[in-house]
């Protein structure tokens, strides 16, 4: 099994962050929306483990 570390670094110059979404093969596996509760959602995708 390969391990990959994904990071999202951003500079919005004072603007609020709306969303961060990560996809593999056109399918979303991670979503972060700071104004929603819960702010983080993980979607099951074979071969992807989010911790």
UniProtKB/TrEMBL annotation:
Sorted alphabetically, which InterPro entries does this protein's record hold?
Ig-like_dom_sf, Ig-like_fold
Coiled-coil regions listed: none
The organism's superkingdom is given as Eukaryota
The record ties this protein, via PANTHER family, to: BEAT PROTEIN (PTHR21261), BEATEN PATH IIIA, ISOFORM D-RELATED (PTHR21261:SF15)
Protein name, please? I-set domain containing protein
Species, as recorded: Asbolus verrucosus (Desert ironclad beetle)
């Amino acid at each position: 099994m390969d391990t990959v570390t994904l990071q999202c670094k951003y500079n919005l110059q004072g603007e609020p962050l709306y969303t961060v979404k990560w996809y593999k093969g056109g399918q979303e596996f991670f979503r972060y929306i700071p104004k929603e509760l819960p702010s983080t959602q993980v979607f099951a995708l074979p071969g992807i483990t989010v911790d």
